[in-house]
Task: structure prediction
Amino acid sequence: MKTRRCLFGWAPPDSIWSPWAVPVPFAQIVCGGLEATQEMESVKDLAAGLTPEPDLAVILDLPGDQAVRLSLALASHGFRPVPLIDGSPGPQIPSVFPSLNVARPTGATAIAVDMRQTMRWLCIGAVQLASLSISANASPVFLLDALRAGIGQNFGPEVFDNRWKTFPQDFPSAKFLLERGIRRILLIQDIVAQPAEDLAHALLRWQEDGLAIFAASAAAVNAPTLITIRRPSQFRTLWYRALALLGLRRASAGGFEAWPHSSGGG
Result:
């Protein structure tokens, strides 16, 4: 499955949510020899009865492969997954997956955020989504990678820095959501908690504009709790984006994936 076909599986032209699908990880992906049916057996029960409702949008802020897997389970119920994963997998990611029946890679990767299993599940998802009939204006499920900041890593000169952040501009505006009947946002994380600080910038804007924010754990997606988003640092400041990106090394070709101390960085 070529890059463009894989991306179209996740961002079909007829979906109103496709303009927000981030193409970055798909630029290095060519999926071949895929048999997704068996793999999907492991995710079919993850949605736990959560079904689309006209006023509901979902955000999955889970480790990348878990977010993709849960989004596919929700897609089987009629939701439309929208990948907002904005990181490059790095120079060591294989461009072709001849078999999906492989164990999770082990050992040092020299990459800040290991995206190998996320990429693998994006391939599986492209096949699965092509087989589903999802409404063009179906309830959206926005996918993030909770490990996008490379938590717990030591970023020395040998590490390819593919960390990233999410920004309010990555999401539809509150006005766009409200005009389409969206009134509730369900944030699903490993545990019921406040959102990560970068995500809080988007959610607080939505909350201030009248959207209700609920939180649930991945283990109990149908047991949401109404939450009040705490004001994050530098909220609504003009220089927030620039400050947030300090420490992420800009690559010469654009984006923020580079070797921290190499000549390849900008």
